[in-house]
Amino acid sequence: MNKNPSVMAATFLISGGSGTIGRRLTRLLLQQGHQVSILSRSKKTIPNVTVYQWNIERGHIDPQAILTADYILHLAGAGIADERWTDERKQEIMDSRTRSASLLADALRSNRHHVKSFVSSSGIGFYGGDTGDRPLTETSPAGNDFLAQVVRVWERAADEIAEQGIRTVKLRTGIVLTMEGGALPKLVQPVRLGAGAPLGTGQQYVSWIHIDDLCRIYLQAATDESWQGIFNAVGPEPVTNQALTRQIATVLHKPLILPKVPGFAIRLVFGELASAVLGGNYVLNKRIREETSFRYQFPDLLPALKDLLL
User: 44 falls in which pLDDT band (50, 70, 90)?
Assistant: First the structure.
């Protein structure tokens, strides 16, 4: 039974369904009475989920995945911060996003379907890795570093689907707070051990969002016809890295006694990837706030951290 009477039960096809966000999104959709299918490179069995195979390198996708979908949620892409940015890794980060979107666009062109909307993950890296405390909205210009280049090409790949007349939404996602992956566990672990400290200057801004709010944004963006184009999928209040670290310590009842971790040490460990750690963005959710009916479950950082850490 659909537990959200405002949204009719439907079939959602998720690429990247085995990732951190994809798994949580799948649980949310199933709880609300929807059917979920995912695209996977290998045969696997997932309770209550239909698994279709695709192979991005070979340009293959099971056409049945497209035929049965009401909505497509495109999350596929190699993790930005999972490994050091070697030339090979940077190419993988780029290709995993653009080639997967192009494959879906080709499948939609080649098969009859009844897909109502396509919601693509994107990133606030569009604006550049470090934009200081300058407020950024959806109309702010693109940056010129590697992450900005990735996001520009990523969004152009999603435009291949919009050009087919399918309503397309691109969610420029900030730092997703969850203990199932991403940045938060890496920040929490040293605090738990009594070795927590802000990174670099600690003044770089973190534009964060609780994973449950992000998943609810995906659902509303897919089903609400008023959503179109680019939205900053971030919470209402960016915070500095120092404030985030302090709030984690407060929730865990741990002291912060160590000095800030110097930037040079982070660069030694992470290489070019350090720019994503030491940089920051003050990103505003202007379009979500002014143009949609979406309401955050976790608009403030402290309740969000308590929900995730306690």
Answer: confident
